[in-house]
Amino acid sequence: MRPNIRSLFPLLAAALLAACAAPDRVPAAAPEAARAAPPAERPCPKEVPAGARCYTGEDGVGSFYWIAIPANWDRHVLVMHAHGGPADTGPARAERSLEDLERWAVTVKAGYAWAGSTYRRGGYGVTMAAEDTERLRQIFVRFFGQPRRTLLHGQSYGGGVASKAAELYGTVDGKPGPYDGVLLTSAVLGGGTRAYDFRLDLRAVYQAICKNHPRPDEAQYPLWMGLPADSKLTRAELAARVDECTGARRPEAQRTPRQRANLAAITGAVKIEPSSLVGHLTFATWMFRDIAQLRLGGRNPFGNIGAVYRGSGDPEALNAAVPRYARDPVAEAELARDSAPEGKLVMPVLTFHAIKDPTAFVELESLYRDIVNRGGSGERVVQVFTDAAVHSYTSDPEYPALFTALLDWVERGEKPTPQKVLALCQANVPAYGGKCPIQPAYQPAPIGTRITPRNP
Questions:
Q1: What pLDDT score was predicted for residue 86?
Q2: Which positions ≥6 away from 445 have C-beta within 8 Å?
């Protein structure tokens, strides 16, 4: 079903007026966007406010997308959403973008247009995901006109995508690029070469203690490769093995003394929450297989030489038993090129992180701060923290506050402070409900306090 052109007249007229003030800034890297079929209008999910119009489509290279435009789009601001994960491998799922729109419907409630891509495939690929997000932006401009402002919002893994896109598309042919500002929430920052070291630690520590991934009677393999390509192990079977050794998914009272000791030793050495053990180990299995075998040609970008694991009952015995691996420098460099930011920014970047995030540690913000300071862009980054123990979503009034603060910075040059974001959030509570546990004075510890240091 093609868009109803008559119904789009008000949107197109408004976008045309905005375009006079903000000429399109299109990187030349997405010719497929010019060939993509028109978006098809679809009923919006119930989470999106009444009166909004929603559209879906495919971008010409295999990515699916959803677009939502408020009934009264007087802001003329588009928020491009880079989603988290990458939990799935294999072909893109059209449902993924719909799930993102449902979760981030508060963006549309706040008066912003929203667009999110599934990316062209599952699995790892930060630069790929940045390209797919930019391609969707071009599709939006082609069919709905140039917004007055375009913000890029990256969540979780998508935060790493957005941090990379901010540098890839910061300028185009020496002119300002397509994004006016960037919001990174619960972001996996610093690139895969640093942010995922702790997951190799988890594989090594878990195997030293549990010895069931792989079991002694199964094919043995270096743990950095995630899983042999022909393995039939399922996620449910892995979770059962974790329960067998640690009882992680059971109430504490139902764990045996040995399971309690194993769980404490593993989570203490790797500094993760017991509730997140299965999730992190799942990533360090199937996504490590994707990274090492499919993206890096069977080479290892991770290493734990020199890492000294503490926090277990017998650290000396643990460190003697842990398998050790050295990075392949070529694989490490290739993963860094794909995923690691250089800290060279030309636009404002606002980050937002839950202090007790169990998935993307808040200390990753310290790593990002170090990167942008070295890159000479420290003044273009403001970091805000909220007292929550969640990863995927915090509270409704916080996100509109962050968008407002970022736009004030872009349009008025008013660099936000955490105190300002808190005040904006509190003003949003009557309209959105929820709470604002933002902690203006909080500063995260160095990354080395959370991810065990190792030899370069």
A1: 82
A2: 363, 366
Three-state SS letters, 383-450: EEEECCCCCCCCCCCHHHHHHHHHHHHHHHCCCCCHHHHHHHHHHHHHHHCCCCCECCCCCCCCHHHC
Cα distance from N-terminal residue to C-terminal residue, the chain: 54
> Among residues 41, 145, 59, 153, which one has the least CA distance to residue 108?
153
Per-residue model confidence as pLDDT tens digits over 378-398? 999 999 999 999 999 999 999
> What's the pLDDT at 17?
36
Q: What is the pLDDT of residues 127-169, one digit of tens each?
A: 999 999 999 999 999 999 999 999 999 999 999 999 999 999 9
**How far apart (Å, rounded) are the C-alpha atoms in residues 201 and 454?**
10
- Which of 373, 375, 368 lies closest to 351 in space, CA to CA? 368
Beta bridge partners of residue 42, listed in sequence order: 54
Q: d(Cα 325, Cα 196) in Å, to the nearest integer?
A: 14
Rounded distance between C-alpha atoms, residue 125 and residue 59, angstroms: 17
Residue position matching structure tokens 């401009």: 141
* Dist. CA 201–CA 255, nearest whole Å: 24
**pLDDT score of 7 more than 50:** no
In this structure, which amino acid lies at residue 22? A
- If one counts every other C-beta atom within 10 angstroms of the C-beta of residue 333, the result is 14
CB 60 within 8 Å of CB 93: no
Tokens 């390509």 found at: 229
The pTM of this model reads 0.92
> Counting beta carbons within 10 angstroms of the beta carbon of residue 186, is it exposed (0 to 12), middle (13 to 18) or buried (19 or more)?
buried
**Residue closest to 156 by CA, chosen among 353, 18, 15:** 353
Buried-state track 225-242, b at ≥16 Cβ within 10 A, e below 16: bbbeeeeeeeeeebbebb
Tokens representing 118 are: 């599934």
Q: How do residues 330-368 score in pLDDT, each as one tens digit? A: 999 999 999 999 999 999 999 999 999 999 999 999 999
Distance separating alpha carbons of residues 440 and 383, to the nearest angstrom: 9
What's the confidence (pLDDT) of residue 89?
82
Q: Which domains does the chain have, with CATH numbers?
A: 5-192+342-449 (3.40.50.1820), 193-336 (no CATH)
Bond into 86 cis (ω within 30): yes
Q: Which pLDDT does position 329 carry in this prediction?
A: 97
Q: Is the pLDDT of residue 327 over 60?
A: yes
